[in-house]
């Protein structure tokens, strides 16, 4: 675990402050537009570099993922995994984690969700380094 700074510039903490959250459609839009994603089990992790030096999290759990209790449980699991593991991830990214329906959601624990995120983040970081925003892949094709 590194001593990555918190949004307020202090030492690494394991709390999830408001500055580390993505809320609302306006905050999610740029992450979806960045087109960097990785499927990890029932999770789809989307990222966009934010230039802030720390990670921010947004969670989307559609109604198909279960009733209100099940959806809230998914949100708690993802937030917990993010809160405990974000300091070990490279870069500064805005993450949106989308939960897809699965057969046995009750079998997922915080540790299992953390393992999925820990597997996805280094790969997404490598993909972001290969294809930075504003690069050739983001440009419109030339029309003749």
Automatic annotation (TrEMBL):
One of its GO terms (cellular component) is ribonuclease P complex. Keywords: Endonuclease, Hydrolase, Nuclease, RNA-binding, tRNA processing. It catalyses: Endonucleolytic cleavage of RNA, removing 5'-extranucleotides from tRNA precursor. One of its GO terms (molecular function) is tRNA binding. Gene3D superfamilies: 3.30.230.10. InterPro entries: Ribosomal_Su5_D2-typ_SF, Ribsml_uS5_D2-typ_fold_subgr, RNase_P. Pfam families: Ribonuclease_P. It comes from the Bacteria. Signal peptide: none annotated. Its EC number is 3.1.26.5. Consists of a catalytic RNA component (M1 or rnpB) and a protein subunit. RNaseP catalyzes the removal of the 5'-leader sequence from pre-tRNA to produce the mature 5'-terminus. It can also cleave other RNA substrates such as 4.5S RNA. The protein component plays an auxiliary but essential role in vivo by binding to the 5'-leader sequence and broadening the substrate specificity of the ribozyme. This is Ribonuclease P protein component. The lineage of its organism: Bacteria, Pseudomonadati, Planctomycetota, Phycisphaerae, Phycisphaerales.
């Amino acid at each position: 675990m590194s001593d990555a700074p918190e949004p307020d510039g202090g030492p690494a903490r394991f709390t999830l402050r408001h500055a580390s959250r993505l809320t609302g459609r306006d905050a999610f839009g740029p992450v979806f537009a960045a087109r960097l994603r990785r499927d990890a089990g029932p999770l789809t992790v989307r990222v966009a570099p934010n230039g802030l030096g720390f990670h921010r999290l947004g969670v989307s759990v559609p109604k198909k993922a279960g009733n209100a209790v099940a959806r809230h449980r998914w949100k708690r699991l993802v937030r917990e995994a993010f809160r405990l593991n974000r300091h070990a991830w490279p870069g500064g990214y805005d993450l949106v984690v989308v939960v897809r329906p699965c057969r046995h959601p009750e079998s997922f624990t915080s540790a299992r969700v953390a393992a999925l995120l820990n597997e996805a983040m280094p790969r997404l970081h490598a993909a972001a380094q290969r294809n930075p925003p504003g690069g050739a892949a983001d440009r419109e094709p030339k029309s003749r």
